[in-house]
Amino acid sequence: MSEAATSKSILELQCPAKLNLFLHIVGRRPDGYHLLQSVFQLIDWCDSLTLRLIPEPEIRRINPIPGVPPEEDLVVRAAQLLKEFCSTKQGVEIHLQKRIPMGAGLGGGSSDAASTLIGLNQLWNLGLNTETLSQLGLKLGADVPFFIFGHNAFVEGIGEKMYGISLETQDFLVIFPNQGIATAKIFQDPQLTRDHAPITIDRFIASPRSFQSNDCQAVAVQNCPEVKQALDWISKEVPNSAPRMSGSGSSVFTALKPKTDTAKLENLLQNLPKGWVGRIVRGLNKNPAYNLISSD
User: Fold this and answer.
1) Hey, how many other C-beta atoms are within 10 angstroms of the C-beta on 8?
2) Labelling 66: which of 12, 97, 257, 258 has CA 20 to 30 A away?
3) pLDDT tens sequence across 205-225
4) Catalytic one among 18, 73, 83, 215?
């Protein structure tokens, strides 16, 4: 995958999805926000973002997502936020090709917003560093700073504490059962477990396969039967795997062993239930846009 294609007036970026290799809910703050621990793994399932400078001082969205008004479109919101923060009169034309399913728990919208901030910072010559971009990104969504951070990470707090972590490169099977789940619905459910014992990053590094649970999964299965159907599909077709949900759902995944017959699996993915989306993806070490921003 190329890092980023750029010219003086056009910038093309790949916006990767992410998986939660595990997700523990270790508490809840007085303000209602949940305290989490997780490891975020970047994957090569990407949306494609093209930013083009235009002479008019406006933000112009090409091929908007059907049913998503501009005020809810994260790439438009990201561009507007950056434009207002820097008081720039520059304009941009935004073209986004969506490949990551919406509402899948894979962070596609957050990744798109992060790449918009990173790309426009470069294209508009604003010179903002990672910390400033992350602070802006947090106004758009809790996962946006992770994609600006740019590396796989051990994540704590409400998602604001990130520690870079080295993960082995491996392939994953990911299935989206074509049924999104509202994150708020999961975290407001009284059946949600909120007292998982915290772990340390050292414990995860020493034995990553010991931590493969998702505290949101049981509640999600109750709210969305398709999640269980997708988990069962993986368990049947990939024996001895450890399928689990990513984030608050509804996508599910499993790591694939090196000797997995991926050709056979690809054939099986052609016959998923109607509307489901399945892919074999590879883990990434960093966001393709990482080198475009300064940590100074």
Assistant:
1) 7
2) 12
3) 999 999 999 999 999 999 999
4) 18
**Interacting residues of 260 by C-beta distance below 8 A, sequence separation 6+:** 171, 238
Token pair, residue 260, equals: 């997995």
Alpha-carbon gap, residue 226 to 212, rounded angstroms: 20
Q: Quick check: pTM over 0.90?
A: yes
Q: Is the pLDDT of residue 197 over 50?
A: yes
d(CA 34, CA 36): 6
- Ordered by where they begin, the domains of the chain are 1-296 (3.30.230.10)
Asked about 261 being catalytic, the answer comes back as no
Which tens digits make up the pLDDT trace of 138-156? 999 989 999 999 999 999 9
Catalytic residue among 139, 143, 171, 296: 143
Q: Is 228 noted as a catalytic residue in this protein?
A: no
Burial environment of residue 136 by CB neighbours within 10 A (0 to 12, 13 to 18, 19 or more): buried
